[in-house]
Amino acid sequence: MLANVKTVLMKNARRYFPRTMRRLLREQDGAAAIEFSLVALPFLGLVFAIMETAIVFFAGQTLEAAVADSSRLIMTGQAQTQSLSQSTFKNQVCSRIFGLFDCTNGVSVDVKTYTSFASVNVTSPVTNGQLDTAGFTYQPGGPGDIVVVRLYYQWPVYVSLLGLNLNDLTGNKRLLVATAAFRNEPYQ
């Protein structure tokens, strides 16, 4: 009896299997869900990487605006006549960049005076993937002096896309730098 059932199934399988396969190929019920699951992860990764890149550039522009605004205190002599210290000047910077930055730990301020624009030091303060703040000073200078104000912020990077990372420091951070170079006004 088992042999007869096996023989009948084998004969009918040739006849029914192609029809079953044709029916499965015609069905489209779950195709959209399967296609979306294949495309969703790369698409969402790309969207998040684009959003993070935009936020990093926005943060860089915010830092540029803060250095332009706060360095005006030095250029016009307000910082010197009010005897602003490095921490007080940093507080002035922080009051211009609230909301986007962790100013207490993240923002570093470097203010240096030079004898000429050609003698301005433009080397990066990054050593072995870390920001080296040992050489940072606060020298606002006097009337007519050339001053360079630099703000540094270590921005955390969360999304990396295909090895094209925004980070340039260790610990998945990007160093945002804003610089203002100017000659102090002849204030009294």
Question: What are the key terms here?
Answer:
188 residues, alpha+beta, two-stranded antiparallel sheet, 5 strands, 18% strand
**pLDDT average, as an integer?**
83
Strand order of the largest sheet: 1-4-5
Number of helices: 5
**Approximately what portion of the residues adopt beta-strand conformation?**
15-25%
- The tally of beta strands, per DSSP, is 5
CA-based gyration radius? 32 Å
Q: What structural category arises from helix and sheet content? A: alpha+beta
Tell me the distance between the termini.
116 Å
Explain what the structure shows.
- Helix 2 crosses helix 4.
- This protein has one domain (32-183).
- The model has no long low-confidence stretch (mean pLDDT 83).
- With 188 residues, it is an alpha+beta fold.
- Helices cover 46% and strands 18% of the residues.
- It contains five helices and five strands; from the N terminus they run H-H-H-H-H-E-E-E-E-E.
- The protein starts with a helix and ends in a 5-residue tail after the last strand.
- A hairpin with a 2-residue loop joins strand 2 and strand 3 (130-131).
- Strands 1-4-5 form a three-stranded antiparallel β-sheet. It has a two-stranded antiparallel ribbon with strand order 2-3.
